[in-house]
Amino acid sequence: MDTALCLAWFEEAARLVHRDRDRLTALDAAIGDGDHGANLDRGLTEVGKALAESPPGSPAETLLTVGTTLIRRVGGASGPLYGSLFRQMGRTLGSPATLAAFASAFDEGVVAVERLGKAALGDKTMIDALVPASRALSLAVRDGVGVLQAVEQAARAAQEGAEATIPMQARKGRASYLGERSIGHMDPGASSSALFMEALAAVVRR
Ligand code: ADP
Ligand code: MG
Ligand code: MG
Predict the structure, then answer these.
(1) CATH code reported for the domain at 3-205
(2) N or C: which end of the chain has fewer CB within 10 A?
(3) Where in the chain are the domains?
(4) pTM given for the model
(5) What is the CA(153)–ligand 1 centre distance, in A?
């Protein structure tokens, strides 16, 4: 991954989140406070501004700016959580940013989210999309598949992970206050995580 690809990733993520803003908000309205689409849309707009103001010189720098901006600019649980994901990735990603390096940085990022949010698989959070995506990337590296196939498998795993949150009962975040009434809805953060992976696959495909 080079700097241009990393910048394109977050431009595409901003586009997809903006496109799906109302859908994400509706998901959050069902089991949370209805601000997830707005939170992320605003956060990624700020990310675009920050990256334009001080153009990063590497994928790692890009990720650090993305993470810091999300932590500063997004109120709500998802800001610090996504912020930690991308900041930890930025701290870990060496150069050259090969697929193996990217997969391992992504894994470290997901661990940082787990540490901050204390959520595990099955708690109906973004973790349920991020962990399958991370596993898919690691398997792709192990099997030596190409970059495009790797990110497409990660995007698919994240989407399946997001769909798998529908029958779950939330054990973390606002949705957990609903108890059994959280069952039957997709977790908004898992859905936005799937969008981040879809954005990555889309820019690699270009
Ligand atoms: P808020 O709930 O503060 O309004 P958002 O609506 O932006 O924040 O984000 C909600 C999403 O954040 C949830 O759908 C879930 O995926 C994620 N989330 C909330 N708490 C946690 C946690 N402790 N660990 C991991 N993810 C979490
Ligand atoms: Mg919310
Ligand atoms: Mg909120």
Answers:
(1) 1.25.40.340
(2) C
(3) 3-205
(4) 0.98
(5) 24
